[in-house]
Amino acid sequence: MRSAPPRLPRRPLVAFVAASGLLGLLSAVPDTSTSIPLQTVADSTNTATVFYYTKTKNWSSTYLHYAPDGGSWTTVPGVQMESACTDWVKKTVDLGSAAGLQATFNNGSGTWDNNGGNNYALGTGTITVKDGVIAHSDPCADTGTGSGNQATVYYSTATSGWTTANIHYAPSGGSWTAAPGVGMESACTGWWKKTLDIGTATSLKAAFNNGNGVWDNNNSSDYTIPTGTTTVKDRTVTTSAADPCATEAPDTEAPTAPTKVTASATDTSVVVSWEAATDNKAVTKYQVTRTGGAKGTVVTDVGSTVYSDTGLEEKTAYTYTVKAVDAAGNTSPASAEATATTGTAAPAPAAGTPLGTDPRKDPIYFVLTARFYDGDTSNDRGGSQHTKSGNAANNDPMFRGDFKGLVNKLDYIKALGFSAVWITPVVLNRSDYDYHGYHGYDFYKVDPRLESAGATYQDLINAAHAKGMKIYQDVVYNHSSRWGAKGLYTPTVYGVRDSQWSWYYDEKNEGFEYDGLTVEPKSGKSYYNGDLWSTAEPTGNTCVNWGKPTGGKSAEGYTLYNCQWPSPTSGMFPKAYYHQCWIGNWEGEDSRSCWLHEDLADFNTESTPVQNYLIGTYNKYIDMGVDGFRIDTAVHIPRVTWNRRFLPAIYDRVTQKFGTTAAQNFYVFGEVGAFVNDKWNRGSVNHSAQFFTWKERKEYSADDETAAIEQFNYENNLGTGNQPTSTNAFLNGNSYHTPDHSQFSGMNIIDMRMHMNFSDAQNAYSNGKDSDDSVNDATYNVVYVDSHDYGPNKSSTRYSGGTDAWAENMSLMWTFRGIPTLYYGSEIEFQKGKQIDCGPTCPLASTGRAYYGDHLEGAVTASEFGKADSASGEVATTLSQPLVKHLQRLNQIRRAVPALQMGQYSTDGISGSMAFKRRYTSGSTDSFALVTVTGDATYTGIPNGTYKDAVTGDTKTVTNGTLAVSAPGKGNLRVYVLNGPGKIGTDGPYLK
Q: Where is composition skewed (Polar residues) in this entry (predicted)?
């Protein structure tokens, strides 16, 4: 760890992220025969010349704050950098014997760029840092202003997604530039340009690279480029080329009229569908015109070939026509008419009631609702990043799966053996890429992109309960979208519909209300933003220099204005509702009271209006009958605030609505992101998962903000050695004892320490045991291998340890203490090794959040947990996979042995690498089990009696308190149950 201000967050100026990725056609290692070296040799004097790109920062001064590897950091703010050339500053620093440096940049007045909290790791020689991308070239070299022959080269990165480009070249008869060459300038979207002086030469040899070791050298042949203007795109060289960034001739050709228009009514909804129209360029949207009913003619823009028209009048005939529109605004003739007559309105579904049983009985299946199964294509939405992300090319809108799809496939989840489903947040979101649900905008409204007629959120809850399955709703108390929270506070930003920004700032429509689904007629967008901005300064504005140019430019070269983008330091957010700082230290107090990301406006959770807003919204979903809450980013709210306000409010509401037993079993589990292999996260108790399972130990000031500081200092000063301990997870010898929950806060936790170590089951087991005495009751821990955020060891990819390792992990999870949880698709190793999340810089189909529905096509029914009654189509193939069979039997065994669900455990008197005993006693139930995973084990000092293995049916009679079990093999296990039922289920690929 370093001593300088750690992880100071950068303040972004624009909301657009450049694409990044690697193209398969690019050579990772250049051809050495063309003088392209395999590596850049460090300067022998061990200096680093650092160039920093200023065009998107608008800083009046730039400072380099750095530490040579193994050395000390400069004094804040560091050393001032000097002007190098247009849009660049530089600084050469002496590194002594160091082989590199850690660096951050700032404007000298408290605004930092620290690479999103990771700092920049720089080597020696010439280094460029441009909008978060590190490369190696002199961006100010070779300006192309000489008097000799010139070659203007355009290079396309549209396919590769490079965020910077260099050209490494040699004029014919001349020498090659030093690798990696010279930096090219951005010409227009997807194109980079450089004009080169080549003296008397009439051509040159060239290769291109991204400055970080990825090359395009024309399959080791290099490119031959003459004088004049040349374009290079996907290995195609076009000489005497036209400027690819020149304005194209206007498109005047209209699309063809849509055909085969049909309309069908269900209750008071009509679904209209049609065949896609054709166009010389591309159809960008459709205009659906409806006539009939009291509202007269209504025109709606639609992005797909299906439109769901809801909330219509009863028993009324409606007629629809459709037109196609291209990007230039050319509109086709109207289609033929289609008519449908509505019926009577469907009654609203009754509110649900939570199942109210012990949550430890219910293994959890975790789904990203929008990526699981698409039951209704009419609510699919791609949003503003549909094309840029690459999702459009895959016909894969980010909002694809929905509640209807989840209802349709509940039997699949039940057939796997899961009786609880954890779903991502359901509230109306608002951001450029919000399918995951964590950018809440209207917390009191369910996102319409997830609902359908007959498949509302209430319908999902009720359908799950009818099958004996629970719904755990992911909830967010820490933050809203960057645009605030409707009904609490939404900031107004400066926007101007001038020639540069009219494409972004939609024309205002006073009669339109954003819901993410409905297309706003003027803009043709479902992601309309006309309600967010103003040219006139709003009443009570606190943002400084409203609407004045900052002096900087956006990535597109457009003028930037003050107050154009929400941020904590902009003055747009009143302290009564939002925090007003960036996190600087992730283990400091500010991690609980500042913004963690530019897209997540951090609620002032110590403010009464905010508390009331959040308590009110989540009361709504409690009243609908959900069975529990998974709490996102729980660590970023002080424990004292949870214990004083939010947790009591949850349990009080459940008690009021459904009674004491339901409240006792309402399952709340928090995400406390401790991504290190420590029992206590880097020594900070306030940032450790188990800390949140305990009540406060003293009284603090009545003011919540003051109390938060007092609690942080008090507990951190006490340190890790003075925290409460518990025996609630442990047997007393062979005896189960009544757990003491008197100091339980009400929040259970995701077992982050086991999660971080699941690259190896033995490591996960050992680390989990080591933390259990510091958790109030670890038998309630949620245990998973990977999730929508990380794989083990904070890996950014989905688990790819192999099928045998997956089977071993599952065997441990389903028998050790805690509640086993599986991320959707892991039952078939779905997307193993793929990057879990890359935002809008790559298509979702290439990530760990890909659409799963293709594996679920067909029909499946299940009346029992862990068994399909019938299955056909692709879902039958999915259910036949080896890990699925393994998972089904594990769920059957766990469901039949109460000790595996709710039992305390012990390893006393046991030899074996992953071997333990568990017992649960309640009333007439007394369940005692001996478990070994993969390896052999010997149990001593156990009760005498008859033990039957739930896996093989083997029976052993113990008369001397000792039982020996031979190794069952990788992924296999033995579960010897005292007076047990014997073999449960049938042999499979691992359990046999």
A: 380-394
